[in-house]
Design brief:
282 residues, alpha+beta, six-stranded antiparallel beta sheet, 8 helices, 11 strands, 28% helix, elongated, binds zinc ion
Amino acid sequence: MKNAQKFVDKSMDSKRKANLPCQSDNKFKKTTSSDCSFESANSTIEEEGFNMPKISIVTLRVAKRDGEDFKGSLDHVQGCQVWNDGLKLPEAWLFGVSIVKSANRPFLLEFQLNCEVEVDIIPKYCKVKIDNHDYTIELIPPQDFKANIGDEVTVRIKRTRWLLKPDQVTNWMKLYGEIIKPVEYEEAPGVQRLKTDELKCVIKLAKHIPNLLPAYGRRMNVVYSGQPIQCGRCFELNHLRANCTNEQADWIKDYVRRFYEEGHISSVLLGRWFEIFKSTLE
Ligand SMILES: [Zn+2]
């Protein structure tokens, strides 16, 4: 895809990169409308740039305050100051910010974006002055921050276009852990009672969830903080296409088959993917 190549071109200026989320959004809409055919199954993943290291959650560590190791915490307003004045990134990208404080981890700020951006748009490091203190902030690369099994994580199911229902998502999420907060529609930011097509729930992880799941004939895009990266070539976790040494996997013949045969996922949960898989066996 011509456009996809443009997106990864390292020479493009930052302004262009900043336009990326919208462009990629539009492109996604175009491709998903046709993703009902078997032929488009693999090419759609290519077009969506699935193998590119794009993120929709940015995790930052507050490393220092006034030169000393940081031991305190920041609130949501101060977190937004880090985003605006420290990273100098558009506020429009922000969906929300959460404060991650736990006994065995450094203090983290976690920004949920309402778009996907390439990892290298986010500065790796910045300094910011908040309430007369100098803070040093570090980006935690997504592959370095892994949720632990047993962690309670907020799982988001992106861009469902209303085609995946909460009970369907629940059936899949139950395979990966205990549901702590039920699957529900995310509220639209700033608009009372209006929902978005994004679904979310909180689950206690029994095992990690892949970014893409073949759910009910859709490609269910699952995201949570600390999720392992997934390879767009072989669909295994913990590496990206650029470092892949495995064979190119086929969405149906390899990936869907793995869920059905090795994962013992029922044909009901696979939906139309199962019908297509079955037809490849005949
Ligand atoms: Zn791979």
